[in-house]
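ok here's Glucose-6-phosphate translocator, seq below lol
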Amino acid sequence: MICSAKQAVVSIAGSDVFTRRRSPVPALASNRFSVAPSLSVPNCKSFGISTTKPLHITSIKGLGSFNQRPSIECQAYEADKSPIEIPEEQVRSEAAKKLKIGIYFATWWALNVVFNIYNKKVLNAFPYPWLTSTLSLACGSLMMLISWATRIAETPKTDLEFWKTLFPVAVAHTIGHVAATVSMSKVAVSFTHIIKSGEPAFSVLVSRFLLGETFPVPVYLSLLPIIGGCALAAVTELNFNMIGFMGAMISNLAFVFRNIFSKKGMKGKSVSGMNYYACLSMLSLLILTPFAIAVEGPQMWAAGFENAISQIGPQFIWWVAAQSIFYHLYNQVSYMSLDEISPLTFSIGNTMKRISVIVSSIIIFHTPVQPVNALGAAIAILGTFLYSQAKQ
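and the structure came out like this:
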């Protein structure tokens, strides 16, 4: 037990106060003396105080005089409830971490906005979403292979079991990626992302009816504005297209399964977020390529490429390269962010990302938006934010 006294400080063990009584030591000459007085604690016999933790006593009165019996005010508190001073190094470390996460988020949103702009430009001039999706995955795979070969990035240590657990994730990722690209080839970027903001509703429904998970009531209530807002935006969309709408819906469902498979398959795997997405891109590329050839084919691609070059010029090649590069970069940064933050913070960041994409695409492509349509989008995004809070 540690006693903090106004006139002096006495260090004694917890058992000494309550079980031992020491004899007073005679005073020495003048002011030079040492004291070990008998300390009795009145009215404290029934106190149940743990001796395993240090105890702070606010004051000891009468310790400086031998004519007075020392008295102890029994106003004590355990040490773990005393104010804790946070070291300056820890404060700096927390600040640096927050700055790092902020940079991740800003980079993630910026790269995503740039990707969506160039992706829409490419699809307007070259309406072949299967090849466009394939090129995005191929570019990312090539970038990571070069990074590993030049040792810019550490090569991941994988085995056959890793690729087995990654396969269902890659299938879901491939379907979600192609479906979203098909959607953006048919409707405005803003409309696709409004519908994709309904992904939490798919997540809850799939988890509830297929996995048997239950959620608190606020989570279910947060789905109402999500579903209602998406429905209002879809009904009031000026350039509504069923293929575009269904593509966004299929993308939502596929990405929900991707997240479920990823969570189950990657437990205990020591692969960083950047390398995990790189492996995911490569496997998705192998899955997608034969389907892209079967659905569209080289002849359609050649004719479409010549038409795009004649209309846009050589600048079209830069558009294709930019959308492919920025697709990989924004996904890679998002997975790197997930390594540093909680899923809740990530979902909030994803909601803010959609807002930035919707607003920027409306401004750049001069998308006509009715007030009711904007209201539906706002309600859906607000519901997504409420969902992330309710999940906490």
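fwiw The longest strand covers residues 55-57. kinda neat tbh
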